[in-house]
Amino acid sequence: MAKRLFGTDGIRGLANTEPMSPETALRVGQAAGLLFVRGDHRHQVIIGKDTRLSGYMLEPALVAGFTSAGMDVLLVGPLPTPAIAMLARSMRADLGVMISASHNAFEDNGIKIFGPDGFKLSDETEREIEALVAGNLSARLAAPRQLGRARRLDDAAGRYIENAKASFPRGLTLDGLRIVVDCAHGAAYRVAPTVLRELGAEVFAVGVAPDGFNINQDCGSTKPQLLCGEVLAHGADLGIALDGDADRVIIADERGQIIDGDQVLALIAETWARDGRLRGGGVVATVMSNLGLERFLQSKGITLDRTQVGDRYVVERMRESGMNVGGEQSGHMILSDFATTGDGLVAALQVLATIRTEGKPASEVCRRFAPLPQLLRNVRFSGGTPLSHPDVLAAVRAAQTLLGDSGRILLRPSGTEPLIRVMAEAQDELLVQRVVSDLCQAIESASPLAEAAD
After folding, report:
1. Could you write out the DSSP letters of every residue in 230-271?
2. 8 A C-beta contact, residue 245 and residue 312
3. 3-state class of 214 per DSSP?
4. pLDDT, tens digit, for every residue of 222-257?
5. Where are the beta strands (DSSP E) in 260-302?
6. What is the CATH number of the domain that holds 29?
7. What is the DSSP string of 96-118?
8. Strand order from edge to edge, sheet including 178-182
9. Is residue 11 helix, strand or coil?
10. Domain check: are 163 and 228 in the same one?
11. For the chain, how many helices (H) and strands (E)?
12. Cβ-defined contacts of 347-351 (< 8 Å, 24+)
């Protein structure tokens, strides 16, 4: 049975409409609670959120759902997604729940659920929750004496701060470094600057005045122009941009130039391999990672295992293969020595540790390879399956013939919008532009209502 509520990163949608309504949040809390109430001990769920206005609506709905299923609730307020995963595992909770739509605008919100091991739930478990949500739950809810309680966990932020600092090598400090951190007016607006300051950096924090509406607005990892400008304005050594729930990171060097997730992945893979810390002989990335990254890693004797887009698929492959480093070009970095999910702040600390160890500026340390020209365009469509149209299939064959062995193409539907993402990369930038243009034109012709949506 296909999943209906859950996508690749939990449940997500426009706030106060289905499925991000208080009614559905209530039932999700009841269903997940019933599924994970096992045994006679007092069951517990930890609930965190980012800074969206709709968090005030969804949080109490989830609390009502879980308590009605007999679970106690610990509320931690705004904290990064990786903090919720960490707390669920360290406190031996039965579940961890994060209310966030990550890098989306404030109008959206989402629900991410972590198991007691700190990992996102499996597809099978998500389907079980969906089946319960669709059924009659009333007969299975807790009796009055078994209802759960809710309370605040006052030291949750401090626990995460110490956990993040512990990922930074002992004996190193950030003394003397000037760092800009853009928290996207999101979940890390307090903890990220604190971690950097306590490690010794001079910190210039932006995106730290959330008002419920400005999360990810012209800031954060998806809009790094603010970060680049602040780095230059303050003469900083490095810039760190997080997204709304701080599970991804984009870096800016001292010249205000962007360093994407592929470069961060290359840096961590090479330095960890050199230090004997890289497990499994390689790293995991997605089909979106640049071919230049793959060739660089091969030159260092490091394999690159690709998955479909989505950090959950990266984590699954890492667990299957015994690898401890994985990530996405977008900035999700999963370092399983320290976290069970993407943690933008912890990844940034690994970059800073290498800068400190090598004693060179970020522009030298963080650029490990020359990326191949890569172009991504989105084509919006309405109805139908453009990727199976004969004309589109013919255009794909023609593109593959043009690129030969020098490059690659990727066409994939978005998991959240009616979009076809068209990507090509090769040594020849003009050829890449031609291939992408031809493919987009074929998709637009195959779907009369299609349009470019860059």
Report:
1. HHHHHT-SEEEEE-TTSSBEEEE-TTS-EE-HHHHHHHHHHH
2. no
3. coil
4. 999 999 999 999 999 999 999 999 999 999 999 999
5. 282-286
6. 3.40.120.10
7. EEEE--TTS-TTEEEEEEE-TTS
8. 202-206, 178-182, 238-242, 249-252, 258-259
9. strand
10. yes
11. 14, 19
12. 347/249, 347/264, 347/268, 348/240, 348/249, 348/251, 349/164, 349/167, 349/168, 349/195, 349/199, 350/167, 350/267, 350/268, 350/271, 351/238, 351/251, 351/264, 351/267, 351/268
The values of phi and psi at residue 225, to 5°, are -60, -40
In this predicted model, what pLDDT tens digit does every residue of 407-432 receive, in sequence order? 899 998 876 677 899 999 999 999 99
Compute CA 11 distance to the chain's CA centroid, rounded to the nearest angstrom.
Answer: 14
Query: Which residue segment(s) compose the domain that 304 sits in?
Result: 259-343
Tell me: pLDDT of 406 over 80.
yes
pTM strictly above 0.85: yes
- The residue assigned the tokens 């950097």 is 196
Q: Distance between CA 254 and CA 362 in Å, rounded?
A: 6
Cβ(5)–Cβ(19) below 8 Å: yes
Hey, is 156 helix, strand or coil?
Answer: helix
Give yes or no for a contact between 153 and 136, defined as CB atoms under 8 angstroms apart: no
- Cα–Cα distance, 214 to 67 (Å, whole number): 31
- 198, amino acid identity: E
Residue 447, in any domain of the structure: yes
Closest CA to 155 of 87, 220, 63: 87
Cα 350 to chain centroid distance, Å, stands at 17
Q: Where are the beta strands (DSSP E) in 53-107?
A: 71-78, 95-99
The CATH number covering residue 433 comes to 3.30.310.50
Question: CA 278, CA 274: separation in Å to the nearest integer?
Answer: 8
* Same domain as 250, residue 267: no
Catalytic annotation, residues: 102
419's CB contacts (< 8 A; 6+ apart) are: 378, 379, 380, 381, 413, 453
Strand pairing partners for 307? 286
| The token pair that represents 70 in the structure block | 């007999």
CA dist 218 and 229 (Å) reads 12
Q: Is residue 84 part of a domain?
A: yes
* Residues ≥6 apart with Cβ < 8 Å to 128: 35
Give the strands of the sheet with 108-114, arranged side by side. 11-14, 108-114, 95-99, 43-49, 71-78, 150-152
| pLDDT tens readout for residues 297-319 | 999 999 999 999 888 899 999 99
Select from 273, 266, 227 the least CA-distant residue to 351: 266
User: What pLDDT is attached to residue 404?
Assistant: 87
**What average pLDDT does range 177-196 have in this prediction?**
98
